[in-house]
Design goal:
The protein has about 325 residues and is an alpha/beta fold. The protein folds into two domains: about 210 residues, 3-Layer(aba) Sandwich (Rossmann fold); about 90 residues, UDP-galactose 4-epimerase, domain 1, CATH 3.90.25. Helix content is about 40%, strand content about 15%. The chain has ten helices and 14 strands. The chain has a seven-stranded parallel sheet, with helices on both faces. A three-stranded mixed sheet has the order 12-9-14. A two-stranded parallel ribbon has the order 7-10. Helix 5 links the parallel strand 5 and strand 6. Helix 6 packs parallel to helix 8 and helix 6 packs across helix 10. The relative contact order is 0.14.
């Protein structure tokens, strides 16, 4: 079986490679990325990946690559996935996320038009940010909830989500759409909230930062899942879920950012002060994201195995202690 992972050097892509190597036999892994800047994420497995550089916003490049590989399964993970960055560059976020996926699906459509036997399955990972503004009486969030995105990133994921539906209905391309809630774990970029806290704590412990941790909004509540559980869910999704309908992937447990910070601080023997940084506050923030994963569990039997608050955060802090 040929598996293509776009964005293979990223946080989720690198963990998906780890999962495939540990759990799936007779799988050839092909990976693409725009550059080799994040190669350290897959440095331990690079020899087991057939790697190509490819800009997913270049339609001709994408077509040539997919036509050459003819993958059976495609995990389209290449994206701009940091919400605050989408406020600074909304056009760039929309272009990369929407145009990149368009090029992948168009390449498949063109190949299928001349080779009816080619019938790959594509996983399009959406986000809980698609739900955006959620009312209290709508919690926990089901897939039927209205989509009211509150950021350019959330908007881009709504477009990707609906595009997957359109290509399934119009062209019978098997697109599986998931909506993952917050995910974290080792290798998480230092710009994301819990990883940023862990990085700051590690820097303070090494004497590389003053004894103060900078924070943004601590009142927001999020449904966190370990990335190692997420990639297992992605494999089950592409194997067992139906095209044309979305699936929430989440733990069902919600923690405030204050609880996350308190847990990380408790894992350090340093006495660290906390200061709010106005630059870390968003123009509009989603206050509560709590998901209902009943549909996904029913389709796949998936259950998260790793305790986010006690295991994931400890692993994340240890990762940054080694990295800094």
């Amino acid at each position: 079986m040929k598996v293509l992972i776009t964005g293979v050097t990223g946080f989720v892509g690198s963990h998906l490679v780890d999962y495939l190597l540990a759990n799936q036999n007779n799988v050839d892994i092909f990976g693409i990325s725009r550059s080799r800047e994040m190669m350290q994420n897959i440095s331990h497995s690079i020899e087991k990946i057939k790697f190509s550089e490819c800009d997913v916003t270049d339609g001709g490049n994408v077509f040539t690559l997919i036509d050459k590989i003819r993958p059976d399964k495609i995990f389209h993970l290449a994206a701009q996935s940091f919400v605050p960055a989408s406020w600074n560059d909304p056009a760039g976020t929309l272009m990369l996320n929407i145009l990149g996926q368009t090029n992948v699906l168009e390449a498949i459509r063109k190949i299928k038009s001349s080779d009816s036997e080619y019938d790959p399955t594509v996983l399009v990972p959406g986000s809980s940010e698609e739900y955006g503004l959620v009312m209290e009486d709508e919690l926990p969030i089901k897939e039927t909830n209205l989509l009211r995105p509150l950021s350019p990133y959330g908007l881009s994921k709504v477009c990707q989500d609906l595009m997957g539906y359109q290509y399934w209905r119009s062209h019978k391309i098997k697109v599986i759409t998931t909506r993952a809630f917050n995910q974290s774990g080792p290798r998480r970029g230092g710009i994301f909230v819990d990883s940023n806290f862990a990085k700051q704590i590690a820097q303070i412990e090494k004497g590389k930062q003053e004894n103060v941790i900078k924070v943004g909004n601590l009142e927001a509540a999020r449904d966190f899942t370990d990335v190692r559980d997420i990639v297992a869910a992605y494999w089950l999704a592409i194997e067992k879920c139906e095209p044309g309908k979305p699936y929430n992937i989440c733990s069902g447990a919600t923690h405030t950012i204050q609880q996350v910070l308190d847990k990380l601080l408790s894992l350090s023997d340093h006495s660290i002060k906390v200061e709010q940084d106005p630059t870390r506050m968003r123009a509009s923030d989603v206050m509560v994201l709590s998901g209902d994963n009943a549909e996904f569990k029913k389709a796949t039997g998936w259950e998260p195995k790793i305790d986010y608050l006690n295991q994931t955060l400890a692993d994340l802090l240890d990762y940054w202690r080694a990295a800094v």
